Hints:
The protein is α/β, with parallel strands linked by helices. Helix content is 29%, strand content 25%. It has 12 helices and 14 strands. Strand 2, helix 2 (41-45) and strand 3 (51-55) form a beta-alpha-beta unit. Helix 1 crosses helix 12 (314-327).
Amino acid sequence: MNTQQKYAIVTFGSHSALQILKGAQQEGFHTICICIKGKEQPYKSFGVADEIILIDKYDDYFLIEDQLLQKNAILIPHASMIAYLGIEKIQLIKTMYFGDRDILSIEASRDKQAQWLEDARLNIPKTFTPATIDRPCIVKFDGADGGRGYFIAKDYDEFKKKIADRYNESFTCQEYVVGIPTYIHYFYSPLTKELELFGLDKRYESNVDGIGRIAFKDQAGFALETSYTVAGNKPLVLRESLLPEVFKMGESVIKASQKLTKQGLYGAFCLETVITSDLQFYVFEISARIVAGTNVYMNGSPYTYLRYDEPMSTGRRIAREIKQAIARDQLTKVLG
Length: 336
Ligand code: AMP
Ligand code: AMP
């Protein structure tokens, strides 16, 4: 039995689970998918899960956790798990957990996130209180909810009209940056202390990415509110002269994170940016774990092609890091 065969890799069936499980299989791990009943078909069909555990709802995770503990399972978090289990319950998880759990509460608070990005000296869009909005702003509700319900307001009156009965929810008004939304996927190894660029994606968001299919003169005929609900992702390669800045930004957020928590950020993460016409990156959000945009590179990206002699997805890279940590007897370095 290989050392890593004494461990299992487990994740929830959604988001990037296909990639995570496939990558773990490629690295020789036993793989477990926890699925909400009725959602298991992809995990069966693609053969990426050696085992599927069915539950009725996300909270029932705690009913099956003993099975995972017995199997020496290592849990890989992703946005669906964060969205549906919630960060308080994630703190109660006893199963081995890949990544820094302390960073979750920083990431979940838009204020703390903004402070982190500012400490890293990244360009971030200006934020406003509703009454001070003086330019087109995007109003974003908290939580990993995939852009659902966001709206644009250019002044306080428009804000009040559009926020309607959601005033009690937690939201941020952020300057709307016009440019190319670009999602940068990184991986930072706490074992080698090296930062790798894994790829970039563009999201496909409804209805903002569909509005351009209707001529401006016809748009007036629809009762349209721009929305940003993510439906899928598309691959992207970047103008090569922008890559030094991409590495610099990734390194800065890692360094700044090390002042925020004991372990600091490690593993997969993503900077969500808009590139403006003067080629400035505005970072509007950070995701401190694997993002679903990496799914466009299940077989490796142009950038992983340069570095690896084999197909290397972010999911596989996570499993590789765990495997290397086990081999070096440093597993705790990748567990949070
Ligand atoms: P789901 O399990 O598809 O309901 O996704 C849960 C959350 O994960 C969503 O609200 C998004 O925040 C995030 N998410 C899922 N899929 C994607 C995607 N393809 N791109 C970006 N974010 C995603
Ligand atoms: P988020 O939930 O922060 O990932 O944002 C969802 C989507 O809203 C993004 O994918 C962008 O299309 C858009 N978006 C968010 N913030 C901004 C911003 N400051 N300027 C322009 N577009 C934004």
